[in-house]
Design brief:
Order of helices and strands: HHHHHHHHHHHHHEEHHHHHHH
Oligomer: single chain
Largest sheet: 2 strands, antiparallel
Strand order of the largest sheet: 1-2
Radius of gyration: 21 Å
Number of domains: 3
Structural class: mainly alpha
Helix content: over 70%
Strand content: under 5%
Number of strands: 2
Length: about 400
């Protein structure tokens, strides 16, 4: 059951609707929900059912979890999609006939999945990615020679979006298999930048196995073979690899390597000049600042002051992708908890939830911090208990 009141849900829906410059009547038409129901829900007189909530969320182009924090339909959709994804990639190297989508339709579907991934809208990814990934695999096998490299790049992107839900929802074996598909496709893409992206994502395997030293070595090799930073995409690719290397070096306790890679990441962020999404990866000055916190938290409690200093001086801008912003507040919450600032830690967790509910709900550190706060701190106990129940920390 949701801890949100009908009024809170209605206010969120109304705020999202206004942000999209829709009237209540237009939202009713777009969602196929009656005008009377929309009015009743927005003023808090009626709690929307799951079906109505999903329809409204789709019309507003958000995940339903951003409208009601207790909504669990996203988990159901994701867990339903995981076996389908496993079946889709079995025999990915075997021709299976033509795709059901035209190349332009497939490209558009993959771009949409990337937007959802960056926005942490995992339920929306789950509804389409099995068929999109299946078509991307088929297209690689039937694409004419002139289109083959582009088809391989599309498959890398589709597999990465599928991996987002597999990794976030704990399907580590499936995640590793999806990354193998990315590597298989990137080798066929004839694009060193795509191979750099794949190396960036592959780090998940090393994080999951706690093989931090070998993961750092893999990233440093990827930096060595990445294209020279002659343009914005090339500089962003190298910078992203350095960001990732800094974090995994921190997990390995190698503070010297972590600082060196952060320094390089800052340099490439300055070269890129502005925050943006480059080949599906967000990179720029803001992302590097976020990774300063990630590195400090990765290095452990004795480096907590580094994380707190960044948060004192800077906050992620609202236009940064939701997944990255929520990650900042989750890691900040861990640092604040270590520093003996439980109320600040709880506030950071609540911000993370507001930004990207499903990312927060599935993040092990968010769950760990919430559980610790509930055990040891009684301030705001009722609200904290509701949060801990929502995140599965009780």
């Amino acid at each position: 059951m949701s801890a949100d009141s009908p009024r809170e849900v209605g206010e969120r829906i109304a705020a999202r609707r206004r942000a999209r410059r829709l009237t209540q009547a237009q939202l009713a038409t777009a969602s196929c929900v009656s005008y009377a129901t929309i009015r009743s829900v927005e003023r808090g007189a009626r709690r929307p059912s799951d079906d109505i909530l999903v329809a409204i969320a789709a019309a507003l182009e958000v995940d339903a979890t951003q409208l009601r924090t207790g909504y669990v339909g996203t988990e159901r959709r994701v867990h339903s999609a995981l076996p389908e994804l496993s079946a889709v990639i079995t025999g990915h190297d075997i021709p299976q006939g033509p795709p059901t989508r035209r190349p332009d339709e497939l490209a558009n579907a993959i771009r949409t999945a990337v937007e959802w991934r960056l926005g942490a809208q995992y339920g929306r990814i789950a509804t389409t990615i099995p068929s999109v990934l299946h078509d991307a695999i088929r297209y690689v096998h039937v694409a004419p020679t002139a289109e083959h490299a582009a088809a391989a790049r599309m498959l890398v992107s589709a597999a990465r979006s599928a991996d987002a839900i597999a990794f976030k929802y704990g399907a580590r074996d499936l995640s590793a298999r999806l990354i193998d598909v990315m590597r298989w496709a990137s080798d066929r893409s004839a694009a060193p930048l795509v191979q750099a992206v794949t190396a960036y994502v592959r780090t998940e395997v090393f994080f999951a196995a706690r093989a931090h030293a070998v993961g750092l070595a893999a990233l440093e090799h990827a930096v060595e073979v990445a294209p020279p930073p002659t343009g914005r995409n090339e500089a962003a690719a190298r910078g992203a690899l350095h960001m990732r290397a800094a974090v995994i070096a921190g997990r390995d306790g190698n503070d010297g390597a972590a600082d060196t890679h952060l320094k390089h990441a800052h340099g490439f962020a300055a070269q890129v000049g502005r925050e943006g999404t480059y080949l599906g990866t967000t990179f720029g000055p803001d992302s590097v600042r976020i990774h300063e916190v990630s590195v400090a938290v990765s290095l452990g409690p004795e480096h907590v002051d580094r994380a707190l200093k960044v948060a004192t001086e800077w906050k992620p801008p609202a236009d940064l992708p939701a997944e990255r912003r929520s990650g900042f507040y989750i890691e900040l919450a861990r640092a604040q908890d270590w520093a003996g600032l439980p109320q600040d830690a709880f506030e950071s967790l609540k911000v993370a939830r507001a930004v990207a509910p499903q990312h927060t709900r599935e993040h092990p550190w968010a769950r760990e911090v919430a559980a610790g706060l509930r055990r040891h701190h009684r301030a705001d106990a009722e609200s904290l208990t509701h949060f801990a129940e929502w995140i599965g920390a009780v």
